[in-house]
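Researcher: I need the complex structure. Ligand is biotin. Inputs:
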Amino acid sequence: MKQDPLEESLTGFSEADLDRIRSETFVQQVEFHRDLASTNDLALEYALQEEHQLPLLVLAETQSAGRGRRTNRWWSASGALTFSLLLETENSQLPPARWPQVSMTAGLAVCEALEGLLADAEIHLKWPNDVFAQRRKVSGILVEAPRLQSGRLVLGIGINVNNTLAAAPDDILQLATAMCEVAGKRFSLVEVLVDVLDKLMERLNWIGSRDHELRDRWRRRCLLTDRRVQIDTVNGQSEGICRGIDDEGALVLQTENGPLRCLAGTVTLLD
Ligand code: BTN
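Model: Output:
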């Protein structure tokens, strides 16, 4: 049975939506799947093939094995946005030394796009690149470099848009939210996606030329600054007051033993 077009726009994509993405955004090729294990996995596979036009968007209506940072899973349900961008980094302003910046810049771009859509909500960034709405996680970002292709980068983004979290595992239920929950209304998925892609293009273009501005914007939205946090890193666990993000993108903590800089890790708020 054919679905009502309005309902379809809240949980999926029509041919017209895919055409719109191709014609209105910086994306050159769209690879759309109703159901996929992980858009990042497919984008990483495509990174090894020459025939694709980049930036390539891998878009899935539902993901069955979405991955998060480290060994985490990314849980999602119908009505969420799950996509990955395969970017060309060779001959661009994105050499490997700037890849940590790509991840934080992507977080900023999602944050700014959501600010435009959720006008009355508090939107924050939780280092390194989670986006929070009303102090709950609404979006996660996973940047990965293909192992055998040094000139490309995969930028995977999951956003809880119209999906209910009712069926989510308990740990996610405690911490997450969806745009529809925050706004009390549902959103056209293609509208949200186009806004996010536009902001991504704008902000990624700033890397290397307007880094100061990117950092300022990021810092203004930092959820952790001046809060008591715990960080888990490969070197163990530490606790302290977050003193912000330094120019290299490291999280700075004031601990009992003095200042601590962390370039990677998972942060938990303690207050
Ligand atoms: C995190 O918060 O740990 C990052 C989550 C990233 C999830 C997105 S959903 C689209 C893309 N495909 C994946 O398998 N993961 C990313």
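Model: Summary of the prediction. The first helix runs from residue 5 to 11.
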